[in-house]
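Please fill in the sequence for the structure shown.

STRUCTURE ENCODING:
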């Protein structure tokens, strides 16, 4: 029996990089991005999947993604942010952050590619990063967190498949 269900989520569809957003950290989700994430959250509800807590990257598009899940899910998860999930963060820093929230049974992390895919690989002991589409989600179960333990990948779903479920 797992002591922790960990969900890794890549942020939703965001505004393009460019003149309008010279600071990449401030790029918001598009309205289509928000709508798609809402559908995903409703699909998770339909599948009886919920979170107790969401830890998000401080970047606008990731925070907005976390907000959509926090507002839409029946489980009404609490929310915090961590620089460990920002593009400059490391898997070790994320694991360190997770240890602060171990009283929670179901934790979601919202981050960015390639970091989230590299983190997933590190957590399950894979050599190659998992590739997350925008809004992609996976669940990894743990009895003991790395470096002592390795997680078990329970499922990994594309945003489109999840939206069809909802």
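FILLED IN BY: designer on duty
SEQUENCE:
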């Amino acid at each position: 029996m797992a002591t922790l269900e960990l969900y890794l989520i890549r942020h939703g569809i965001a505004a393009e990089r460019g003149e309008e957003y010279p600071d990449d950290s401030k790029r918001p989700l598009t309205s289509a991005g928000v709508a798609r994430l809402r559908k995903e959250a409703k699909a998770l509800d339909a599948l009886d999947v919920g979170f107790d807590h969401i830890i998000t990257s401080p970047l606008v598009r990731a925070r907005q993604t976390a907000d959509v899940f926090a507002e839409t899910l029946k489980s009404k998860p609490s929310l915090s942010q961590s620089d460990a999930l920002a593009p400059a963060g490391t898997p070790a820093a994320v694991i360190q952050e997770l240890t602060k929230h171990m009283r929670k049974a179901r934790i979601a992390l919202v981050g960015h590619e390639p970091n989230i895919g590299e983190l997933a690989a590190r957590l399950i002991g894979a050599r190659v990063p998992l590739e997350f589409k925008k809004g992609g989600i996976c669940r990894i179960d743990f009895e003991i967190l790395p470096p002592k333990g390795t997680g078990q990948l329970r499922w990994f779903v594309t945003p489109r498949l999840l939206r069809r479920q909802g």
